[in-house]
C-alpha cells in the first residue's frame, strides 16, 4: 500500500517514514527541503534498508501538485506534515505562514478529490487549546483564540478539512492529530531534529548548550503557578509520535466513511517542568548544563498536558518512552550531528 508523506524529510516526517517502512508500507515523500536535508533519505535507508521514493517540489505550486497526483493516482493515504512551524517567525511574517501552510493544504485536498484519494492524516498541535481551563486536556476542550499566526494556520486547517468532509463534494476520511511537545530522536541517531539557526524550542537549545554551540540556556520564568515555578509541558518521544501515525493510517484505511474528522491528542499524559527536563538531561548524560533563570517568554502558557485516553481507546496507541529516554536520545543525536559538522 502506497502512502504519501509530505514533509517526510523533516523531523517528525522522517521518523514516521521509518515506522511505515518497517511495517511494510511503500512510502513516497514530497518535500521542498525548505527545512530539511536530502541526506535524510540515505539515513532512512540505513535504518530500514529501503530508499524511499522522493519528489522535491513546493506544495504551494498548484500545477506541480496536481501533476504529482495524476502521476501517483495509486496513493492510498496521505500524512501531511509539510508546513512552517516557527511561532516567532510567524508573528514577524504572517503571510509567509498563511501562504505556505494553507495553500499547500488546499492543493493537496484538491489533488485528492481529482484522484479519488480518501484518507488523510493531518499534523495539528496542542497549541489550539491555548491555556486550557482543565487539565489534563481532552479533545473536547474548547479551541481558544490562536496566540500566533502559526497556531491560527492549524486552527484554520482543521476547519478547512472539516468543511471539506461536511460539503460532501468529496469523499474524505480524516484524522487530526494534535501533538503535544515532540522531542528526542531515533535510537540509531541517524535521524532527528535539525533546527536551522538558533533553536526556539527547549530540547535542541539544551543539547546545543551542552555541546558548546550556545553559551547558556535561558529558562523563561520561575514565577509560574507550578511546583517549581517553571512552565510545564507534555513532552513526547518522536518515535512514539511516529508510531501513532501508522495506526491512524491503518484506522482510516480499514474504516471508510468516518463522516467527521476524528481528533486525537498525542501526548504521554505527564507534564514536566523546564527544570525537570534539565534535571533529566543532566542525570542521563552526566553533563552539567549552563543555564540561568530569566523573565517569562511572551505568549508562553503556564502548563499543559494531554489526556491521551481517547487515542488509547480508539487507536490502541499509547506513548511508551519516558522523559529520560527522550533526553538521552536527543543528546546522542546532538553528538552525532555535531561530529558531522
Ligand atoms: P519540520 O520543519 O522538521 O518538517 C516539515 C517539512 O516540511 C520540512 O522538511 C520542510 O522542508 C517541508 N515543507 C514545508 N513547507 C513545504 C512546502 N510548501 N512544500 C513541500 N515541503 C514543505 O517540522 P516537524 O517538526 O517535523 O513538523 C511537522 C508537522 O508537525 C508540521 O505541520 C508542524 O506544524 C506540526 N507540529 C510540529 C510540532 C513540533 O513541535 N515539532 C508540534 C505540533 C505540530
Ligand atoms: C517549552 C518550554 C518555554 C526554550 C512550541 C509551539 C507549539 C508546538 C511546540 C508546534 C516552555 C521553555 C524554551 C528556551 C525555555 N509546536 N523554554 N528556554 O512553547 O511549549 O511549544 O513548540 O505546533 O505550537 O509554541 O515549546 O520547546 O518552545 O518550550 O525556558 O530557550 O521550555 O518557556 O515553557 P512550546 P518550547
Features:
341 residues, alpha/beta, Rossmann fold, UDP-galactose 4-epimerase, domain 1, 2 domains, 7-stranded parallel sheet, two-stranded parallel ribbon, 11 helices, 13 strands, 42% helix, binds nicotinamide-adenine-dinucleotide, binds UDP-4-deoxy-4-formamido-beta-L-arabinopyranose
End-to-end distance, in Å? 37 Å
Overall pLDDT confidence: 96
Q: Output the CATH homologous superfamily of the largest domain.
A: NAD(P)-binding Rossmann-like Domain
pLDDT under 50 segments (min length 5)?
none
Q: What is the tally of beta strands?
A: 13
Order of helices and strands: EHEHEHEHHEHEEHEEEHEEHEHH
Count of DSSP-assigned helices: 11
State the assembly state of the protein chains: single chain
The hetero compounds bound to this protein are: nicotinamide-adenine-dinucleotide, UDP-4-deoxy-4-formamido-beta-L-arabinopyranose
Task: Please bin the fraction of helical residues.
Answer: 40-55%
Shape: globular
Q: Name the beta content range.
A: 15-25%
Q: For the record, what CATH class of the largest domain applies?
A: Alpha Beta
Strand order of the largest sheet: 3-2-1-4-5-6-11
Tell me what the CATH architecture of the largest domain is: 3-Layer(aba) Sandwich
Whole-number tally of structural domains = 2
Structural class: alpha/beta
Give me the CATH fold name of the largest domain. Answer: Rossmann fold
Radius of gyration: 19 Å
The description of the largest β-sheet is: 7 strands, parallel
